[in-house]
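pasting for ref. prot 1 ->
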Amino acid sequence: MTDFAGAGWAFPLGFGPAGSVAMARGADKIEQAMLLILSTYPGERPMRPLWGSTLRDNIFGGTGADNIAAIAQEVRRSLRYWEPRAAVNDVQVYPDPARDGLLYIDIEYTVRTTNSPRNLVFPFYTIPEHEESEV
């Protein structure tokens, strides 16, 4: 049986003890691919102009319910489209009570080849909404 998850250079790029390029395999490779998809805006990769996620479009939306729903929808859409090795089961987005503007994106997914459930928490920073002070 072939390894459906594959292997490739680790992200971020690193080197092993013998000086070779560090590799990632299996579920680690899938998780790294998911992080890359969410961190890459379509058009950043010239040879794959549609690849990535428009998650950054929500950076100025704050931590309100509408923006949280839009973020969850975009995460589901981009991962279902670009990462066939993982089945996205649920996406929960919630604010950090201690840090204004920080949202945590909790992605529950299943690795298709092993049917093993996993989760990934991705921090997403928004521009906090501040009231203008009087002069």
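and prot 2 ->
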Amino acid sequence: MLVKPVFDRVFVKKDDQISSTAGGLILPDVAQEKATKGTVIAVGPGKYAEKTGVFMPTVLTVGTRVLFHPYAGSELVVEGQSFYNMPEHDVWAVIEDE
């Protein structure tokens, strides 16, 4: 990838949305649940705390599976690959084992 996030930003590839029910019914876009799981594909180095000036490195690493707010991040498309750019604090949790 030619794009690298800065500060505490992370790039996340969202999991595909479920477009049909278990019974085979096709769901329209407005009825589909927004994806809240994904995989971290790039991380920035971290940021400096505003009050203390202490450098705080990012906690997440590439390949980590995460949960996040359904409307978190801004979509970017680079070289045909779609991913979401969000601050690390928008990630709710790390998925350790599925």
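The chain has a mean pLDDT of 84.
The CA atoms of residues 65 and 96 lie 7 Å apart.
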